[in-house]
Amino acid sequence: IVMKSFSVYWNSSQDRSNNHLLNLSTQAFVQKFLEMVPTEHDHESQGHSYMLKPIQSTVKIKLGQSSRGKTTRIAASVDWSPVEIHLSDSQYKDILTLMIYWDLYDRWGKYSRFRPLLPVRRNAAAWWNYAIECVIRDVRQSRYTPLLKIIERKDTRNKYITLFKRKLANEHPWHSPLNVKEKELLLNIEDNLRLDDLVLFRSIAFGELDVEKQNKQYIDNPIRNE
């Protein structure tokens, strides 16, 4: 069994070289996308931002019988080329953004069957009924969530966001770095968080860091900013 040029790439949305895929028909998009699939000889020329660089693998399986001839013996050997994994900041943020939009899509689909098939203008009553129905259903579901659980989640969120921002102290020096116990606490919180919560909390942390950076630049250069 031979595997050639298995790879994973993620071309960041900040890379404008992908704009040629926009406004293509479905057939043209599929054809162009297939042409972009890396092969053994041209993966470097494709210009992809690889998360897992193309690897080659060969698996050899040998079947035989034992000396007594009653059992089957299987011998297998696997040969892998070097495995290189990369993840840039832009790729990481794009993945978080994708998860956020996926979560928004799930929320939209949750009540899509109640959504009016009418424009908002001149149909305010239908849209108000839709909004009220969604809120009522959310309230009914929230009744099954104990108050202590809500408070615990709020504390976990605030604690995680604070620790995660301090984890990035090398890039944001106005935050103090984590000590050993705080690093362990951060890992424990991450182990107990669901993926959607992890994505949400990190996106909030990145948003707060951006605001803090802008405020710090303004404080450091008040005359220039005025």
Give an overview of the whole structure.
The protein has 226 residues and is an alpha+beta fold. It contains seven helices and three strands, in the order E-H-E-E-H-H-H-H-H-H. The protein has helices at 26-35, 89-110, 124-142, 147-167, 180-192, 195-220, 222-225, and strands spanning 2-9, 50-65, 72-80. Strands 1-2-3 form a three-stranded antiparallel beta sheet, with no helix packed on it. Helix 2 (89-110) packs across helix 6 and helix 4 (147-167) packs across helix 5 (180-192). The longest helix has 26 residues, at 195-220. The protein is extended, with a radius of gyration of 26 Å.
Average of per-residue pLDDT values: 81
Which strand order do you get reading across the main beta sheet?
Answer: 1-2-3
β-strand number = 3
Number of helices: 7
**Structural class per helix/strand content?**
alpha+beta
Span between N and C termini?
66 Å
**Percentage of residues in DSSP E strands:** 5-15%
Q: Biggest sheet, open or closed, and with what strands and sense?
A: 3 strands, antiparallel
Low-confidence stretches: none
Q: Based on Cα principal axes, name the global outline.
A: extended
H/E topology pattern? EHEEHHHHHH
Report the radius of gyration as a whole number of Å.
26 Å
Proportion of residues in helical segments: 40-55%
